[in-house]
């Protein structure tokens, strides 16, 4: 049991590492500029344990979470999900992965259709926490067209018969392309990624119907470019150059005023999980109706009002300040944040 969740992810990781090493050894691929690590850990706890060993410039530049891959199309409704990294970490990885998945499925496809989705908040993708600053999209074949998880999930029926050889091959191929491209990207390719992010931001600002949404788009661009600057020795100067493409931005803020709300300041690099909190706290978080990764908008500078604006833009619908306040008050009681004026 556990063939899909998550022996499949481990198997694809091992297959990719063997393939890349063989291609490099035989001279078909150059030695990449950066190292590639394959981490097989104990769920979220293993991921966090790995990340906590890296500080400063040593922390990973980017990653991918392989969690339930290569399912037969009838098991997952033919859905191959590419769930992006968080809004507040380098969104450039989303485009890279999606590009290689599209190309892969043209050549190897057991019956999948690709769904590009926003961050789903899996604790296994905890590297996307801005405290770690490691963009982490996820590749998965566990949700059907109605967003229901496969029937054998977490049961003794999760056996090897649920796996597709061609599906595993497609997931491994796209993963290998994603990893090697980023590991070997030179300055011109990094600049191309930055230019692509800037073009998307400018288009988003042109379509923005309010200054609030324009500021939201600018925040996404800034997060992505900030992460890209870590890839090059002269990244800080390049960040200034890329930022100038957006002109005199971010858009003009509203007149400064004393905020009537507090500012949440994070106290620990940890992902909120239902299993490690008291029932009344979980109930309060649930009643807020906000996803757990709303926590990532708390950068120590944004007030609850500002976070409320960003979350409303992220979800494309108004989110009340009351809901945001309820959410962060629960986290404050849990000890994940402290509230400051």
Termini separation comes to 51 Å
Strand content: 5-15%
Number of helices: 11
Rg, nearest Å: 21 Å
Q: Structural class per helix/strand content?
A: alpha/beta
Topology, number of strands = 6
Explain the overall architecture:
This protein has helices at residues 3-25, 43-51, 73-76, 92-107, 165-184, 187-207, 211-228, 235-244, 279-288, 304-315, 321-334, and strands at residues 65-66, 79-83, 113-117, 138-140, 263-266, 337-340. The chain has 341 residues and is of the alpha/beta class. The chain has a four-stranded mixed sheet. A two-stranded antiparallel ribbon has the order 5-6. Helix 4 links the parallel strand 2 and strand 3. The longest helix is centred in the N-terminal third of the chain and has 23 residues, at 3-25. It is globular and about 60 Å long.
Characteristics of this structure?
341 residues, alpha/beta, two-stranded antiparallel ribbon, 46% helix
Provide a compact summary of the structure:
The protein has 341 residues and is an alpha/beta fold. The protein has helices at residues 3-25, 43-51, 73-76, 92-107, 165-184, 187-207, 211-228, 235-244, 279-288, 304-315, 321-334; strands spanning 65-66, 79-83, 113-117, 138-140, 263-266, 337-340.
